[in-house]
Amino acid sequence: MTATTEHPSPAAPAAPPEKGRGLFSRALEALLTQRVVLLVVLIVLLLVGMSILDAAGVLSGSFNADYLASALISAVPLAMLGLAQLMVILSGRGGIDLSVGSMVSLTGVVFGFAYGLWGWSLIAALVLAILVGGVCGAINGVLVAYIGFPPLIATLATYYAYRSLALVVSDQKPVNSPVIQDFYSAAQSVELPLIGGSLPLIPLGIFTFLIPTIVIVWLLLNKTTFGRRLYALGTNNVAATWSGINVKPNRMAVYIASGVISGLVAVVTVAQFASARPDAGTSGNGMALPSITIAVLGGVAITGGIGRVAGIVLSTLLIVWINASILLTLPGNDGTQFQLLALGVVLIFASLLNGLTRRKYGGI
Amino acid sequence: MSVDERGVSAPAVRATARRILPPPVTGQELVLVGVIVVLWVLLGLFTPAFLSAGSIRPLLVSVAPIALIGVGMTFIIITAGIDVSVGGAIMLCAVVTAKSLVDFDLALPLAIALSIGLGLLLGLLNGVLIAYGRVHAIIITFGTANIFQFLALRVFGSSTVNGIPGTFDVFGRGEAGRTFGVPHSFLITIVIVAVAWWYLRHTSGGRNLFAIGGNAQAARLAGIAVQPRILAAYALTGALVGLAACFFIAAGTSTLDQAVGSGRELAVIAAVVIGGTSILGGRGSVIGTLLGAILVQTVTSGVTQLGWPSQLANLFVGVFIIIAVGTDLLRQRARKAS
Questions:
Q1: What residue intervals traverse the membrane (chain A) (predicted)?
Q2: pLDDT tens string B266-323
Q3: Which residue of A has its CA nearest to B265?
Q4: CA A103, CA A139: separation in Å to the nearest integer?
Q5: Is residue B223 one of the residues assigned to a domain?
Q6: Beta-bridge mates of residue B161
């Protein structure tokens, strides 16, 4: 079957570029069909635009490499959950995980108890967080893959359930102890060894959590049969079944992965807040909506089967730096409000673009 | 065997007629009624105050806006769509209406018209983007949810809206909000549910919605104007959000804070889904939605009255969604197997 062997990468051109086509038309096609190109262009535009504003002196702080690097702290949970959504949405059949924020809250509280109050070692508590996240994700996976729940409904139900559990087991109070407060050091910015002197300080979480996750997810999707199977069943579930792919366990696995990543994000969040807040992943807009936004902006087709790790990383950078830029341009309350607007406009823009490219070029 | 003028035997006609019209009340709705009755009896036994008018009335007042928006959401989900922006839309309608009440002391009809008009506009925006932009509804409405919230926060400024006059007391919890002891907001909701039930079941417009949700491509080929129908479903939801926003203002105090509407989209979707409407489209009923909303509110208010942590209510809501959808899935599987 071709479903297992076809190259699902959106970068694969449908036809060799015809001779005689103008540079402009080819550039336009690259911009529209290769989300990575568009994102890089947008990031460059943003950086150039903000540098000009900075030079004009209208910003409330200076827009430089240090500022951009410190803004990366919020990229860690966003990109990790974006990768979780990438895998879940890729698996097709309306795959989506609304419960990631609740899983972050719940595993964060459990981690807080184990590490902060029961005196577990960091490694043991980390393993526990991963396990709890994995179990939460497995419940989603069983509901979706084996019982046949629409993912939207299954994860809506568990969103309620996990959020409620997090608040009930913690008695609606943040879990706090000196150990957890010291854990804040895990969220600090560090200087890179060897070449670090000439570079800005970079948040530690980038190296301890984000980059390993990116590498593992990339390897899973691109270098394993599991990844190939995932693209196959996201592209065409029936074809995947008939080509001998064991659909159910594969689909369940992505929900478990989403739970495991949520568990890791919970640990990152506990470090950032220096306490285990039971509403860490659900307060305000929660973490589910931004992570889905990241995925859609990164070129993941909501119908499944199309999406790349590079898209997620770049769209996270774009969102994080847009947010940081807004804060510099409009300080205080205005800034946070305009971040909402930016997120909404970017999401609608990205999805309209996805639809347009699909119709015009037959792919993202 | 009698044969009519078209040469079709009478039992066959009757059988076709029966197939075309779904039963007026589905099995899932009867089960829901049963569950609600059992819950009310149990809660009545354990907390004697539960079955008093003083406890049921506020319950009905809080059911009203959820069920009202649920009617529109049922229409949308029947067409295989979804609208997660209603929380933001409630916030925007409520703050604009409340501000106008404070600043211009609008009369009741004007205030209602303003809120419904604004809601309709927001619904139209969603509808146009979804029906004509041909983009997945959940993504678009996630986006508009952010934009509505942004606009609402701009209107709020950085504080609450204070000193709202009692214009909306006719929808409130007080004496002015009741006729024969039944809250007006709940009565209005019942009437709208009844009209929507009739529309979905007995008019071609209503049946078209089911056809679109069942198979949009087939519906288009059958001559149904798919895009205008989808647009209308989102516009209707917007208008109902506008009316519900009036209920939210009325149910509160003279102060409106920025938490209004927050998380309501999920409560509405939960009510619709518990009511037996299929998220995949093509199947659903507004009576189920009303019952779902009552069930969710019963659990919420029951948990509080039992003295349990109020956050526990959401756990039950999650479990109810899984049970309601799960039994439906298993029934379908059994039907397919037989």
A1: 36-55, 67-90, 110-131, 143-162, 201-221, 252-274, 286-302, 309-330, 336-356
A2: 889 999 999 988 888 888 899 999 999 999 999 888 888 888 887 888 888 889 889 8
A3: A156
A4: 11
A5: yes
A6: B256
- Chain B residue numbers with beta carbons less than 8 Å from the beta carbon of A162 are 318
3-state secondary structure of B256: strand
Whether the full predicted model's pTM is greater than 0.90, yes or no, is: no
Q: Best interface-test mutation with B: which of A139, A326, A351 has the largest number of B CBs within 10 A?
A: A351
Whether the CB of A337 is below 8 Å from some CB of chain B: the reply is yes
Instruction: Please state the CATH superfamily assignment of the domain spanning residues A71-187+199-319 in this structure.
Output: ABC transporter involved in vitamin B12 uptake, BtuC (1.10.3470.10)
Contact yes or no for A352 and B133 at CB 8 A: yes
ipTM, two decimals, is 0.80
Q: B138 and A148 in contact by Cβ < 8 A?
A: no
- The mean predicted confidence, pLDDT, of chain B is 85
- Interatomic CA distance for residues B76 and A220, integer angstroms: 37
The boundaries of the domain holding residue B128 are 53-262+282-287
CA B10 to chain centre: 39
Judge contact between B303 and B316, C-beta under 8 A: yes
A chain contacts of residue B325, beta-carbon cutoff 8 Å: 149-150, 153, 157
Q: What are phi and psi of A341, to 5 degrees?
A: -60, -45
How many structural domains does chain B have? 1
Dist. CA A1–CA B24, nearest whole Å: 47
Task: Report d(CA B57, CA A352) in Å as an integer.
Answer: 45
Q: In terms of Cα–Cα distance, which of B300, B335, B338, B326 is closest to B50?
A: B300
Please give the residue of chain B at the shortest CA–CA distance from A284: B262
Chain A positions touching B133 (Cβ under 8 A) are 352, 355
B70 belongs to a structural domain: yes
How far is the C-alpha of A107 from the C-alpha of B317, rounded, in Å? 20
